[in-house]
Write a structure and sequence with these properties.
Layout: E1 3-6, E2 17-19, E3 27-34, E4 37-44, E5 50-56, E6 63-70, E7 74-81
Antiparallel strand pairs: 1-2, 2-5, 3-4, 4-7, 5-6
Length: about 80
């Protein structure tokens, strides 16, 4: 859901900044090779969501676009080894 990112931005005129509602899809899949060894693939932000912020520009809480940020998709190959 939408939330207040900062009550006063660092850029003049120091307006409050809101982070718009957003969400990401992350996932992981691991395979057990032996009882002590696993191999897996993890993905973050699979839908490549854009984070959008808005500035409050008036006393009656009207807003204007402020920034758009993309974190990009990330994939990780993982190896897990456990010791007894």
């Amino acid at each position: 859901s939408e939330f207040l990112l900062t009550p006063r931005d660092v850029i003049v005129p120091y307006q409050p900044i809101l982070n718009e509602a957003t969400g990401t899809l992350d996932g992981s899949l691991f395979f057990t090779i032996t009882p002590h060894f696993k191999v897996g693939l993890q993905g973050a932000n699979l839908t490549n969501e854009v984070t959008k912020t808005r500035a409050i520009i008036s006393d009656d809480l009207k807003t204007a676009p402020r920034g758009f940020y993309v974190s990009d998709r990330r994939y990780t190959l993982g190896l897990r080894w456990t010791f007894d």
